[in-house]
Amino acid sequence: MLVGFLASADPAAKVYAEWTGKTCVENGFAFSLRVVDRELLEDAILQANNDDSVSGIIVYYPIFNNRQDQYLQQIVSIDKDVEGLSHRYIFNMYQNIRFLDPHNTKKSILPCTPLAVIKILEYLRIYNTILPYGNRLHGRTITVINRSEVVGRPLAALLANDGATVYSVDIADVQEFTRGAGLRKRRHEVVEKPGWTLENCLPLSDVVISGVPGDKYKVPLELMREGAACINFSSERNFSPEVKEKASIYVPAIGKVTIAVLLRNLLRLAQNKIDAAAHGVDDKSSAEPVIPSTA
Amino acid sequence: MLVGFLASADPAAKVYAEWTGKTCVENGFAFSLRVVDRELLEDAILQANNDDSVSGIIVYYPIFNNRQDQYLQQIVSIDKDVEGLSHRYIFNMYQNIRFLDPHNTKKSILPCTPLAVIKILEYLRIYNTILPYGNRLHGRTITVINRSEVVGRPLAALLANDGATVYSVDIADVQEFTRGAGLRKRRHEVVEKPGWTLENCLPLSDVVISGVPGDKYKVPLELMREGAACINFSSERNFSPEVKEKASIYVPAIGKVTIAVLLRNLLRLAQNKIDAAAHGVDDKSSAEPVIPSTA
User: What positions belong to coiled-coil segments (chains A, B) (predicted)?
Assistant: First the structure.
């Protein structure tokens, strides 16, 4: 069973919760939405961590809309974290470490939204399956507009870890994520590109991925290469309608794929549990201690 | 050896690094300040994690001044985290769990700045040593103005876990942290106080602790009880000079105590290592996997 915790007053969180429920029902997954007071959420998550009938946990943010939300993200057991937000998972993602254990039986979970973009790029054959697994973006140049810790930066790292040259663009500056010439490195490195702007990045890019919040921003289409693939992960439309005349492929929204990826992660966690049991690997991958019951 | 990583352009970070060095030298601790490019900091920390000559690590923030800084805080090995910023430590603090292991041999580290305030309150005998350990603030009412994840909220939780009634005040609202009537609970609980402001909290408070950034804010002294103890942890002066006429005790700054606490945590980590070895406890308390060397 997937459990969703709704302790947010944000209408978008409520809509996301409803969508999750709908997608679960359509695909035969059990889903339980639990509406809880935000001051009781930490204990409710800990209880779900220790409840064997719960296979996965999703928490709808924002809740406190400050760093307390990041604290809560770390409360979810790593064995039930379908969103892939545990530090251990994020660390493995940046470090390009694909398994949780030295026996390579338990796959590390990737964060949902960046993974949704990856899955879309695989589907669109921008990942080239002729190339070896792990290097399938070798030769691609990709601009990612947004460098948030939630989507933009992890996405740039994932794409570079798979071999792409990535220009990560935010208001302040441009950074280049690569694995070095000839994919020398095991994982990406980052260099600043002083003075660079979209004027430098877009003409070089096969793929343009944008996730700028707010309804004002539009990607300057005139700078883009003819036939670029364009993906929007903002809740607003970052590409104006004329994008269809210039892009080879245009993906206006990724929400449905993100929920599918959430369910994929749920299956992955279940599979990890089965594989670990079959291989006799200690199932306690979580760093969290057992919590004594409250007095 | 304590290692400090300076990858921040913030002058205050540089000053804090210099103070740490000075305090270490005065007290016979080895200290090595390493100035690194922020893009190379993650690898530098990982290397120090694996270096047996390094006993403790401190990183001077802000660096990216966004959520990437919180990611970096989780990179430091739990066995070397003198600042007490690892999620495991923060989690134990909120949950009032005082040891890392079920054998109670390894003490959990507390975050430096909130712990500095606790140590000041102990020194000032606001902690009553007649009362049992763990309940020594029973009967005290304390207002904490600031509810950041770094200082204000952990401090309110620590004080309530030790038995105080705490009013946690920020711009938006007031929350009451307690362990319930008669210290019923093992750890604190939080309730919102709708409509409350400092006008309600200050007249009830034996102790007033303030950490509002910016030079504009002043605690309204006219609302305070005669003889209250006042502690300022802002880098600015949150109490106007007249506080000396009304307060029984006034502590204008806590920086030096914070660095002393940092060294105390360093000794604690060293002691944990010795105790764990003596008790034959597995020393691997960290959840981080061993990192393969880069290609």
Answer: none
Q: What is the pLDDT of residues A95-154, one digit of tens each?
A: 999 999 888 888 999 999 999 999 999 999 999 988 889 899 998 999 999 999 999 999
Would you state the CATH architecture of domain A2-85+95-108+256-279? 3-Layer(aba) Sandwich (3.40)
List A residues 157-186 in contact with B (Cβ-Cβ < 8 A): 184-186
Complex prediction ipTM: 0.76
By C-alpha distance, the chain B residue nearest A101 is: B289
Residue A222, by phi and psi: left (phi above 0), alpha (psi -120 to 50) or beta? alpha
Convert the pLDDT of each residue in B206-259 to its tens digit: 999 999 998 999 999 999 999 899 999 999 999 999 999 999 999 999 999 999
User: What global pTM score does this model have?
Assistant: 0.83
> Domain B113-255 sits in which CATH superfamily?
NAD(P)-binding Rossmann-like Domain (3.40.50.720)
CATH 3.40.50.720 in chain B, residue ranges: 113-255
State the Cα–Cα distance between residues A93 and A112, nearest whole angstrom. 12
CA of B27, closest CA in chain A: separation in Å? 34
Indicate yes or no: CB of A68 within 8 angstroms of CB of B42: no
The answer to whether the beta carbons of residues A196 and A184 sit under 8 Å apart is no
> What whole-number distance in Å separates Cα of residue A112 and Cα of residue A85?
9
CB contact under 8 A, A190 and B39: yes
